[in-house]
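Subject: Protein record for review, amino acid sequence with backbone structure tokens
Why sent: The fold of this protein is of interest and is recorded here as tokens.
Enclosed: The protein record, placed directly beneath this head.
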Amino acid sequence: MEEHALILLLALLLDATFGEPALLYARVPHPAVLLGRLVGALDRGLNREGMAAPARRAAGVASVALLVLATALPAAVLSALLSALPAGWVVEAALASTLVAQRSLYEHVAAVADALERGGLAAGRRAVSMIVGRDPESLDEAGVARAAIESCAENFSDGVVAPVFWFALLGLPGLVTYKAINTADSMIGHRTPRHEAFGWAAARLDDVVNLVPARLSGLLVALASPLAGGARPGAALDAMRRDARHHRSPNAGWPEAAMAAALGLALAGPRRYAGRTVEDRWMNAAGRRDAGAADIRRALAVLVTACLLQGTAVVTLAAL
């Protein structure tokens, strides 16, 4: 694990410094794009029209098993080959950095604050539609800001903490396999006629692999809160214990409840997706609901501080 931590530390530094270089990914596909193509191919090949629900579910289980094998085994072979090279660990760190989203998460959320400040509600709606799936036209300015903050909290878990956790535990195969599962959930883990049965296995497995990272994310947000000018850690921890279980996701409620209490806001609550209202409970219901661009900036300060705390933990692990 200590060796993994050294590689991971460099990966985090590379991601924080360079993010996702646009010039590079204009010429070669991003690894996440390749994972998406693999999930799409499995969906097209195994999720046939006219299949009964039990057959679709069985095909979905098979697709997830194939996805795990098709990502874990090549990643394990590549990691073994790189470990035999003098500077192979640097290459492995560079590869790992492409699947951690510290900088890109910050930039996407900051873009919503920029849009609200410079272009008003219409610009804010356009910007937030790039990072959330809800109906942007149904959002007022407070709704846009809350959506951006919720995305910041949830994606801190999925895009930052979980990849770091699985790399620290299992190295490159753990990281790549986690990202494949998470990509599958985002593409086929929906309750639609085509994917409700077929995507069941992907959604449930994604829940499992995010159980620990989601709770670690909430803890990091709680610890980061006072350092970023937010509430005391106890308030965030209390909100997680009280509210996280009421979220429609078994995992997203932990970082969202912590972020809500850290900022003194109420997050989640009723939201509209594809013309349908989802009646979710509020996270930190006693908090303010009139969020704005300034609150997004505060959430970003919590995000940066939480990333620094996570990096400190990785340094500590590497020094053991």
